Amino acid sequence: MNSNIVTVGKKIRQIREAVGLSRPKFADLLGVPPTTLKNYELGYREVGGAFLVALAHHPELHKFTLWLLADKKVSDIGQIGPDDLASD
User: Fold this and answer.
1) pLDDT at 2 (0 to 100)
2) Contact by Cβ (8 Å): 26, 36
3) What are the domain boundaries of the chain?
């Protein structure tokens, strides 16, 4: 794996921090235990597909889906990255 690629878990943490939620609140929002989210963020556990689907369908978080999965942003269709929240 390319060491320049940020893991999905680290990107989930970036999203959580950008929206200003604690780990327990973010975990509750997506229906996972806080320890599971911690394990995702720290790379101790592979992020599950059900979690990614929940994030993609969440009305406040779906805007990060393309960035999370493909490192792409298309602001014309509302797909942004965590760093774009400062621009709002």
Assistant:
1) 47
2) no
3) 8-85
